[in-house]
User: Fold this.
Amino acid sequence: MTGIYDDPWAYELACSFRDVPAEVEVLLDWCKRHRVGAALPRTVLELAAGPAEHAREFARRGLTATALDLHPAMCAYADRTAAEAGLSLDVVQEDMTSFALGRRFDLVVTMLDSTSHLMTLDAFTAHLDRAAEHLTADGLYVLEMSHPRDRLGDDPSVSTGWTVERGTGIDAVHAAVRWGEPTDRLDPVTQIADDHVTMSITEGGATRVIRDVVPYRFWSATELIAAIRLSGALEVVAQYGDFAEVTLTDPAAWRMITVLRRASGGPAAE
Assistant:
């Protein structure tokens, strides 16, 4: 039995409600705002990249882009789709807690709450250490996570169910996605929930269903700051509640996005 991460095309389809070009534009604007000298990045690394949609968009804009992911199927898909689009993309199969690429980047990003796959504080701090080690002296690390109210509040910021439509006529694709069920409870001790994922895809008159169980580790805002301090390799530059730059406490906030740089007094970047 294969799961959602074994089917990169389906995973990309499920996430196609995201406006990746617009998000990349905001990420570049944040670089101009928060980097020394308001410099645009020339090199970018996307961690836990999956289909590498953001890395491909950066490459489309002329940046030297690298995508890193642990899943072989995701890496193969990212490599193939980039080649088909005529994009230069370096794809690396590595763990986000232990990678060592031997080079540094002006911008490192982790999108779509991929740090929810880090199940322990040790894993999270190791990840932060690795991200910092791969930043240039004036580089930024942008970390996108789900908003804490999605797990702690009575009124979640995002829905656990949505539909996706792509194409028209005989090329039309319809998908219904359920990412999490009401019975998927967060363990109060481990802060881990087994999210049940169901995706029904109808294409060319045929329907197939993907079912999976994805462990999800919830990280609160205070835990994030504690992990950053425990690592000591990074410091917070700014936090946003979405890509429209609302504050984290704004009722309209639906993400927890943290912009970081190498900590003052830390090891000098080569």
In short: The chain has a mean pLDDT of 94.
